[in-house]
Here is the input.
Amino acid sequence: MSKITAPARTLRAFMLAAAVGWAVGAICSPTQAAPVEAAATQAASAFASDRLSIEVMGQGPDVILIPGFASSRDVWRPQAQRLSATHRVHLVQLSGFAGEAWSHGDGAFVQPAVDEVARYARTLNRPAIIGHSMGALVGLLAVQQHPEVVGKLMSVDSLPFFSALYGPTATAESAKPFAEQAAAGILNADAAGYRAQQQATAAGMMRSEAGRAAMVEWSMASDRHAMASAIRDVMTTDARPGLAAMTTPVWAVYAADANGGVPSAMADAMWSREYAALPSAKLVRVDDSRHFIMNDQPERLAVLVDEFLAD
Here is the structure.
C-alpha cells in the first residue's frame, strides 16, 4: 500500500473500523419498526431468487431501495413508507444478512447480487435505485453493466472503490491481503468477542444511540460466511474504471461529522477524488451525520431523496 498521510489515516481509521466487524444497521430496531398494512405491502411473488427477496409497497414510479452490509431492509422502512404515498417502492433484502437465509458458502456475494438486482429491475419501468453503502455499490455496478434497465442512481455514503480509503494508489490487487484478513476476522471471532466488536463499530457508524442496538443484532443474525464473502468482494471491487462511460444520472450523498466522525473537508476531498471520472455526478454532503445518514439525518435525507426523484 502507499504511504498514508495523517488526515487520510484519520479517515481510514474511522471507515475501516468496519472492515472486520462492519456492523451496519437500522433506523429502528425490529420491534420498533412501524407496522405496514397488508393491503399496502406485498412480496414480489413472481420474482424468485436465492440472492435477495423483495417487498413492495405503494403505487407510482418504481424505486428500488437496497440496504448495506449486514443490514435489514428495515433500515429503509421509514423512507419507504413515506415514499409509498407517491411511488411503488421495492425494498430489497440481501440474502445472508439480518437473518435472511444464505446457501452459497464462501462463494461470491457482490456480483451475483448485482445480477439479480438488474434482473429484477428489468421487470420494472426503468426504476430509480437508492442504495446505502455496499447496497450503493451493487446499484452502481448494476447501472454500469445494465444501463438500459435503471433510470437513475442515488449512492448514500458509498465510494466506487471502498479500499481507496487505504490511500489514492490502492488497487483491487493490493487490497486482497487486507480483504482476506477482514474475512478471517469475521469467520474466526468467538460470539462474545464478535458482539463486542459489533458494539464498538456501531458507535462509529451512527450518532444516534437508539439505533445502535439494532445494528448489532442484525449483524449478529447475519450469516458469517455471507459477511466474509461480502467484505472480501467489497474491498476488492473497483467500480471506478466504469465511471467515465456512465450516462445514467448519479447522485452521491455522503456524510460528514465534526464531532467524532469524518471532518467535512476530508469527506469533500475523498468523494471529489473518487468520483472525478464521473463529472456529471451530483455530490451532496450531509453534515452532522455518520455513515447511517438515514438514521442521523432522516429529514435532510428525505428532502434529498425527493429532489433526486423529481430531478
In short: Residues 172-188 form the longest helix (17 residues). DSSP finds twelve helices and eight strands in the chain.
